[in-house]
Design brief:
81% helix, 8 helices, 200 residues, mainly alpha
C-alpha cells in the first residue's frame, strides 16, 4: 500500500516537472543558437548518436567508463554513487575540458569543430543511456520512479552543461539562459493553473 502511494506521488511529481523540462529545453536550445557556427555541429553530434543508438550500437561501454569512475569517487555514499554519475555528464565534461585546454593553451587549430561535434554526440549518449539505465532499473508497471528520476536528472544535466558552456564560450550566457528558463517555466505553470477547473 505504502509503495503504491509513493509510486503515485512520484508519477504526479514527474507530470508536474514536464512544463519545467519543456521550458528548460527550449531555453537551452535558444541559447545554443548564440554559438553561431558551433550550434549546427552540436546538433549534428546529437543526431549522429541517436542514429547510432537506433541502427548500430549504443556505445554503452564508453558510457559505463565515466559512470564507474564517478561511482568510485563517491563510493563513500551509496546514494551519491548512484545519483552523481547520472546527474553529472562525465564524458561531455571531459570533451569540453579537452577542447578548452586545446584552444586556450596550444596552437592547435581546426580541431574545434570535431570536438564540438563529439561534445554533442557524447551529450546525447549520456542523456539517452542514463534514461535507459533508470528505465531498466524500474520494475514498476507505470515506471513512476523512472518518470520522476529522469525528469530531475535531465534538468540537472542541462543546467550543468549550460554552466560549462557558459564558462567556455562568452556568447553562451548562463544568466540569460537561466532567466529565460525561469520566466518561461513560471509562464507555463501559470497557464496550466488557470486552465485547471478548480472547485469554486
Amino acid at each position: 500500500m505504502g509503495q503504491g502511494i509513493l509510486s503515485m506521488i512520484k508519477f504526479l511529481v514527474g507530470i508536474l516537472l514536464l512544463p519545467a523540462i519543456y521550458a528548460l529545453t527550449v531555453s537551452f536550445w535558444m541559447e545554443l543558437e548564440n554559438l553561431g557556427k558551433l550550434y549546427p555541429l552540436i546538433c549534428s553530434g546529437m543526431l549522429a548518436y541517436v542514429i547510432f543508438y537506433i541502427f548500430l550500437f549504443a556505445l554503452k561501454g564508453v558510457y559505463d567508463i565515466g559512470h564507474k569512475v564517478f561511482s568510485e569517487i563517491f563510493s563513500f555514499s551509496e546514494g551519491l554513487s548512484l545519483i552523481v554519475p547520472l546527474a553529472f555528464p562525465v564524458i561531455p565534461f571531459l570533451v569540453l575540458s579537452i577542447l578548452f585546454l586545446l584552444t586556450q593553451f596550444t596552437t592547435v587549430r581546426g580541431i574545434e569543430r570535431y570536438m564540438v561535434f563529439l561534445f554533442g554526440f557524447t551529450l546525447a549518449m549520456h542523456v539517452v543511456l542514463s534514461a535507459r539505465t533508470i528505465y531498466d532499473a524500474d520494475s514498476n508497471v507505470i515506471k513512476a520512479h523512472y518518470f520522476f528520476s529522469m525528469g530531475l536528472i535531465y534538468i540537472a544535466n542541462l543546467l550543468i552543461i549550460a554552466a560549462l558552456l557558459g564558462m567556455s564560450y562568452s556568447n553562451f550566457v548562463f544568466a540569460e539562459f537561466f532567466q529565460r528558463f525561469r520566466e518561461a517555466g513560471i509562464a507555463h505553470y501559470q497557464f496550466l493553473y488557470h486552465k485547471i477547473p478548480w472547485p469554486r
